[in-house]
Amino acid sequence: MAARRPFTPFTKPSPDPFRPLPHIPLLYPPSRTIQIMSAFTFENIVTASALHPKPQNIQFTYGTAGFRMKASLLDSIMFRVGLIAVLRSKKLDGSVIGVMITASHNPEEDNGVKLVDPRGEMLEQSWEVYATSLANAPNDDALVETLERIIAQNKIDVNKPSNILYAYDTRPSGPALVASLEDAIKAAGSSYTNFGLKTTPQLHYGVRCLNTQGTNDAYGEPTEIGYYNKLATAFRQIVSDKQRLSPLYVDCANGVGAPKLRELIEVIGEDIISVNIVNDKIGVEGALNHNCGADYVKTGQRLPPGSTVTSGDRAASFDGDADRLVYYYVDTDGTFRLLDGDKIAGLSAMFIMDLVQAAGVDSIKVGVVQTAYANGNSTTYLTKVLKVPVSCVSTGVKHLHHEAEKYDVGVYFEANGHGTVLFSAEALQTIRTAKGRTPAQTTAIAQLRALTDLINQTVGDALSDMLLVEAILTHRQWSLKEWDQAYTDLPNRLVKVVVANRHIFKTTNAERQLVEPAGLQADIDALVAKYTSGRSFVRASGTEDAVRVYAEAATRAETDELAFRVAELVFDKAGGVGTRPARV
Ligand code: 16G
Ligand code: MG
């Protein structure tokens, strides 16, 4: 093992806290905080809005991932999201509200925008409705009326200050959309900071840091280097004295994760962690998320084309904005093995439960939150082997996040690789004040403390989650195959069905059962009953105009058959459009 250099956190490199590190190519102009003192007037807003008219005949919806669509349709949305952000900040006495411009794993020509609340969480649900109505206001009069209604309903004092922090990913449409957003923020007389090119979780981190600065609850230094230092210090502490693992291939989906991972590794030190970054072509047109990234690997359950990963290698993929992570390897017989969000949840829960016990703070109870997409065998492993409470909620980060807050330590992951671990205020207090009675206890307490810094508690974060997995594997000196031994996934299959109206699909029981169309669930149940360990459910997508069918069963053949029989049922009985789902 190479000798370790002593670790000194980087200090703030320049008076501008948001300056990118020197060796990262400057894709966008350096950022500055702009203080604006002008008044909030409808006149200013209407004048500026004239440059950002709403396209006719389009109905916009603030969905599970904010607004997301072809970038060419987003101009008016960006302007109006800027207005909502300003009002939200004023409503919350000038707390910083985040705006992230990204379309995650979608194709490069798409873009999107979502708002981040003061603690780095997703926008409160009641405000999603305001964002939707404002986005759909057909003309200036309707725009002003909607703003007035939001202001009145929320008793907003428009003379209060407001502060916005925004960031964007590597999409070519980013700069033009930033300009539309800024037009709105300036017209509304708000202060703002351009946080520059960032991963989605870095923006969430920045928002929480700015809002908690100088309080007992301070989350960290609100800079990019502050983020790297926090993660690096924690990681180095957890793996100290442990043998370094072999290099990890990381497919960054040709997105923002590539330069940011490079930064992070540099701060941690290559003597501590070694990665081979692949798919880092952020300047190449059409490359983003194309035949690579976490969504490609998870959906297709295969290596990205051109991957050089072979048996014995360790590999992982991020998505385009670096808030999803999946791991994988190739078995000795050449079989591709995926370690998805469910596997990460199992590994994290196991490790944290062991540490809690070793630290002698067993009053802290760990729980896991999943969605209906969690593999049946992962749920069995959690409940029967780890004996940890598991809740199942609807798809979408906000649902998982809120449920996880109910536990002392809430581990939440979607099977697609998005997730994190939340520590309650009481759990944090217990961990911070615990005193070990033995050297082993003292070490375990210190490690738990480091974990609370290592894990991005605002939102799922591919960089932070990767360090969490690497820390656990280093600790145990486990290969990916050893981690994979916890349980074997049931074969599973996802099929998309296009229907005339997906909104007729209404579900209950955390999306596991259909209430409407009437009778369809009984037909699905009858099919499922014919398969060993069969399970299937149907729900309308929140991000695409389609219905998704999920199925799992004891064997690959049974799974495929079940998935397609359910898909055919949906197509035939609930207004299928186009070609009937074909078995492949
Ligand atoms: C969004 C959600 C993700 C969910 C996915 C489901 C957030 C930030 N993202 O990407 O959690 O898994 O939608 O997509 O909430 P679907 O509704 O199209 O199946
Ligand atoms: Mg994403």
Automatic annotation (TrEMBL):
Cofactor(s) listed in the protein's UniProt record: Mg(2+)
Stretch forming the signal peptide: none
Co-factor remark: Binds 1 Mg(2+) ion per subunit.
Cited InterPro entries: A-D-PHexomutase_a/b/a-I (IPR005844), A-D-PHexomutase_a/b/a-I/II/III (IPR016055), A-D-PHexomutase_C (IPR005843), A-D-PHexomutase_C_sf (IPR036900), A-D-PHexomutase_CS (IPR016066), AMG1_II (IPR049023), AMG1_III (IPR049022), PAGM (IPR016657)
Residues reported to bind substrate: E414, A415, N416, R539, A540, S541, G542, T543, R548
Domain Alpha-D-phosphohexomutase C-terminal, residue spans: 512-568
Ranges where the Alpha-D-phosphohexomutase alpha/beta/alpha domain occurs: 96-126
EC number(s) given by UniProt: 5.4.2.3
Entries under CDD domains matching the protein: PGM3 (cd03086)
Short name of one Pfam family: AMG1_III
Pathway: Nucleotide-sugar biosynthesis; UDP-N-acetyl-alpha-D-glucosamine biosynthesis; N-acetyl-alpha-D-glucosamine 1-phosphate from alpha-D-glucosamine 6-phosphate (route I): step 2/2
GO biological process, one term: carbohydrate metabolic process
Phosphoacetylglucosamine mutase AMG1 domain boundaries: 223-326, 340-478
MF (Gene Ontology): magnesium ion binding; phosphoacetylglucosamine mutase activity
Annotated positions binding Mg(2+): S104, D319, D321, D323
Active-site residues, as the UniProt record annotates them: S104
Reported function: Catalyzes the conversion of GlcNAc-6-P into GlcNAc-1-P during the synthesis of uridine diphosphate/UDP-GlcNAc, which is a biosynthetic precursor of chitin and also supplies the amino sugars for N-linked oligosaccharides of glycoproteins.
Family statement drawn from the similarity comment of this UniProt entry: Belongs to the phosphohexose mutase family.
The protein, known as: Phosphoacetylglucosamine mutase
Organism in which the protein naturally occurs: Jimgerdemannia flammicorona
